[in-house]
Amino acid sequence: MTPERDTTxxxxxxxxxxxxxxxxxxxxxxxxxxxxxxxxxRVAVVARRRDRLTELAAxxxxxxxxxxxxxxxxxxxxxxxxxxxxxxxxxxxxxLINAAGTMFTTxxxxxxxxxxxxxxxxxxxxxxxxLSQQVFPHMRALGRGTIVNISSISGRVGIPGIPQASYAAxxxxxxxxxxxLAVQWARHSIRVNTVAPGFFRSEITGPLYESERATEYxxxxxxxxxxxxxxDIVGAVLWxxxxxxxxxxxQTIVVDGGWTTR
Length: 262
What we know:
Helices cover 44% and strands 14% of the residues. It has 262 residues and is α/β, with parallel strands linked by helices.
């Protein structure tokens, strides 16, 4: 490898850096965790499903932390236990990927139950803020760190035929949170960004891809002539997680095949 190519490759080298990835038991979270480990990071994978986490952690030589992220202040397997467990097993975290998120209702806005609204906000918005607060002192002590929130194009545009008011609000909130944390923590060389994926196959979008009518709708409204996958999102996350994105902070990066450019 030439010196120039070696320098370029180092932009994505995460050797020895400790990373936390939430929502890692499936889909995008699992793909991101695997990619970070491939680049040398020591990865703690976080989700509720212990069996899936254990298998993934063994495969990437990482740490499985079973946790209910909706338990914001509880002991045991609540959110407050994550960072201490990671520090004890791997060391202080330098990378946080907030990939956990879901929809708790598909009711139209006027009918969304209050409990579902609160659960959506707690998991999709409050939990990323609380985890960011938990990793902050460790990143400040290290003198650097990067946080990547996984949002959605639903936080930027309305999607006809898919009711998701509280989900869209929570994802839009992530962009606001990202900008504010980026400004407040920039003096500590902590970067905070958001990646907003378009449509790709996941547990949330699974029903869409089971309908030929729905998949045709997605194809017709996506300028790039391919179906999105989790791997299409991973590259943007890796760019922001490492030194390749060292001068990028406070941004929401849309990865949607051109959906929102129409």
